[in-house]
Amino acid sequence: MLSATEKELIVQIWEKMLPVAEDIGSEALLRMFTTFPKTKTYFAHLDISPSSEHLRSHGKKIVQALAEGAKNISTLTTTLAPLSRFHAYQLRIHPTNFRLLNHCLLVTLACNMGENFTAVAHAAVDKFLSAFSAVLSEKFR
Ligand code: HNI
Fold it and tell me: What average pLDDT does the chain have?
C-alpha cells in the first residue's frame, strides 16, 4: 500500500504532468501500440498514428483521469466506478492490457522526468498504477 509520502509524491507527479498531458499520454499510448501491437485492436475506430488528434486527445484523457485519481487514492473504487464499468462492459478490455499500459506510462515518465524519476518515485507510481488498474479491470468477466 502507498505511504503518506508516496501519496503526496503521486499527487505532485501527476499535477506536474497535467500541463503536458497530451504529450505524456500520447507517448505512453504510442509506446504501448508499438511494443504490444495487439492492444491496437481496441482502438480500431480511432486514428492512432503518431501525433494524431485522436491519439493526443485520448492520451490527455488518460493523464487527466490519473491525476484525478491521485487526489482521491482512498476512494478509487467509487470515483472510478463509471470508468471501470466502461472498460469492462462496453470496451471489454482484458485485464492483462492494463499492465502493458502501466509499463509504458512508467517508461514515459522516466524519459520525461529524468533524474526526478527517482527509485522512490518509480515505486510509488508503480503501486498507484497497479491500484488504479485493479479498479478499472475488476468488473471484467
Ligand atoms: Ni482507457 C477510454 C482512461 C487503460 C482502452 N480510457 C478511456 C477514457 C479514459 C480512459 C479517461 C475515456 C472515457 C470517456 O470518454 O468517457 N484507460 C484509462 C486509464 C487507463 C486506461 C486511466 C489505465 C491507466 N484503456 C486502458 C487500456 C486500454 C484502454 C489498458 C486497452 C488496451 N480506453 C480504451 C478505449 C477507450 C478508452 C478503447 C475508448 C476510446 C474512444 O474514444 O473510443
Answer: 96
Q: What is the CATH number of the domain that holds 105?
A: 1.10.490.10
Q: Is 11 left (phi over 0), alpha (psi -120 to 50) or beta?
A: alpha
Is 38 touching ligand 1 by the criterion CB < 6 Å?
Answer: no
Per-residue pLDDT at 59: 98
The pLDDT of residue 83 is above 90: yes
14 lines ligand 1 (CB under 6 A): no
Q: Which atom of ligand 1 is nearest to the CA of 69?
A: 22
Please work out whether the CB of residue 134 comes within 6 Å of at least one atom of ligand 1: no
Q: Give the mean pLDDT of 33-55.
A: 96
The boundaries of the domain holding residue 107 are: 4-137
